[in-house]
Design brief:
With 269 residues, the chain is mainly α. Helix content is 44%, strand content 0%.
């Protein structure tokens, strides 16, 4: 429990009781920051509300928001939550010491703040969530170095952010979701490389984005969704080939498109 001289904690009714991070009651008398007790908010601390020794991360976070200047001195604290939250407030030049921290929660926080030059040191982190954070922040050639990450989720994020000049290098990624992201961004003529992709969903995206005169190459696609996209956008001569399509939705789309073609032609005349 807190020492006898400590005033009652201001934790909301029904909230989690103060709990020392090693287990048992919080003892302010054993805390290196006990001199802060009794000072008014935000200059003090308070068990159950703003306390660095509590197991509850929200209370640790409030403590460091009140006292960000103490963060540098707690980056080696044995409790990972303290290190992780201190990393949000610590000086940037001190964060490199946490790049090899044994807990991924700490490294996640470090990945959010490290400068680009140091951030590359986390691109091969063993935890996928850390590498995802890195991929969210890296730029240019540094981001391109993550194209071959073993996790498809990381590569998918890379595909969302990679400069267009380098995006085609992911067009043959082994994962469908990565190639889908590539198809959503790739420009002509590189987009044509995905018109023969093995996955129908990738080809459907290609059919949404290819210039209309080139859609004829997809008119015989084996997937009805791709042919349906062709029926919506292709030139009339290609659409006519879909009037007898095996799928009723494709046939209906082709009929509707050809019915609109004369009106569209008159509007442009």
């Amino acid at each position: 429990m807190t020492n006898a001289a400590s005033p009652a904690a201001r934790a909301p009714a029904g909230d989690i009781a103060p709990l020392y991070w090693r287990g048992g009651p919080v003892d302010c008398g054993r805390c290196a920051h006990q001199a802060l007790r009794g000072r008014p908010e935000p200059h003090g601390c308070e068990p159950g509300h703003a306390c660095m020794q509590d197991a509850y991360a929200r209370r640790i976070d409030r403590f460091f928001r009140w006292h960000p200047g103490l963060a540098d001195g707690e980056l080696a604290h044995p409790y990972f939550e303290v290190r992780a939250i201190a990393a949000r407030h610590a000086s940037l030049f001190r964060l490199t010491a946490l790049i090899g921290d044994p807990d991924e929660t700490v490294r996640l926080q470090v990945a959010l703040r490290l400068p680009q030059g140091q951030l590359i040191r986390l691109m091969h982190d063993p935890h996928r969530e850390v590498r995802i954070r890195v991929a969210q922040r890296l730029e240019g050639s540094a981001l391109a170095a993550m194209r071959h990450d073993p996790d498809y989720g990381v590569r998918e994020l890379v595909a969302r952010r990679l400069p267009l000049a380098l995006l085609a290098t992911l067009a043959h990624d082994t994962d469908r979701s990565v190639r889908m992201r590539v198809a959503q961004r790739l420009e002509m003529p590189a987009l044509l490389t995905l018109a023969s992709d093995a996955e129908p969903e990738v080809r459907r995206i290609v059919a949404e984005r290819l210039p209309a005169p080139l859609l004829a190459r997809l008119v015989d696609d084996e997937d009805w969704r791709v042919r349906w996209e062709v029926a919506l956008r292709a030139a009339p001569e290609a659409v006519r080939r879909l009037l007898d399509d095996a799928d009723p939705e494709v046939r209906r789309a082709a009929i509707d498109r050809l019915a609109q073609a004369p009106a569209q032609g008159a509007a442009h005349g």
